């Protein structure tokens, strides 16, 4: 299965990209880096520049239907940039419209708020997003990982890098159809 990792050209929290990427790859799936621009993305370790990674597909040319699931890594700047890009928001929304599973960690639910897909859902995130999620019609919980089955697809969310093992385990089970 192909799994899309949607990130901005800069600002993604590196560990929130690399650990889920490794989990997807180790499970025998194909991780695909999708961004708003071609070339490379600049990851960060909190506020410090980290490594760069090559973009596989540009979001305006990517087809959500060619992926079995979507992973949205966090970082403060990453989802803030993505939610201002109409093509990125439409790409995220299409996963929900097509009933495909989505996983988001830390600040990534900001992009979900912009895509107007949290209404009626229960999710977790970095604590500073709780008011945004509530204002968008979602229910925020402080849990290591939350799987929400509202609607035709499943949404897996997590709070922070310390939750990565649980996050990866949960979304891999959901993406493979083992949870439901």
TrEMBL record:
Origin: domain of life: Bacteria
Native organism: Streptomyces pyxinicus
Protein name as catalogued: Type 1 glutamine amidotransferase
Keyword line: Glutamine amidotransferase
Pfam families tied to this protein: DJ-1_PfpI
Similarity section: Belongs to the peptidase C56 family.
Sequence ranges assigned to domain DJ-1/PfpI in this UniProt record: 1-172
């Amino acid at each position: 299965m192909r799994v899309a990792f949607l990130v901005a050209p800069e600002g993604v929290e590196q560990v929130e990209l690399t650990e889920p990427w490794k989990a997807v790859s180790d499970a025998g799936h194909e991780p695909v880096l999708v961004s708003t621009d071609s070339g490379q993305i600049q990851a960060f370790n909190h506020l410090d520049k980290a490594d760069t990674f090559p973009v596989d597909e540009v979001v305006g040319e990517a087809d959500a239907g060619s992926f079995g699931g979507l992973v949205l890594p966090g970082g403060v700047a990453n989802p803030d940039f993505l939610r201002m890009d109409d093509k990125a928001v439409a790409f995220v929304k299409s996963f929900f419209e097509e009933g495909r599973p989505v996983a988001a960690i830390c600040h990534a639910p900001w992009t979900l708020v912009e895509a107007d897909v949290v209404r009626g859902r229960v999710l977790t995130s970095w604590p500073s997003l709780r008011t945004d999620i509530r204002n968008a019609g979602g229910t925020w919980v402080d849990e290591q990982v939350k799987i929400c089955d509202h609607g035709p697809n499943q949404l897996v969310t997590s709070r922070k890098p310390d939750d990565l093992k649980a996050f990866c385990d949960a979304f891999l089970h959901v993406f493979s159809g083992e949870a439901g």
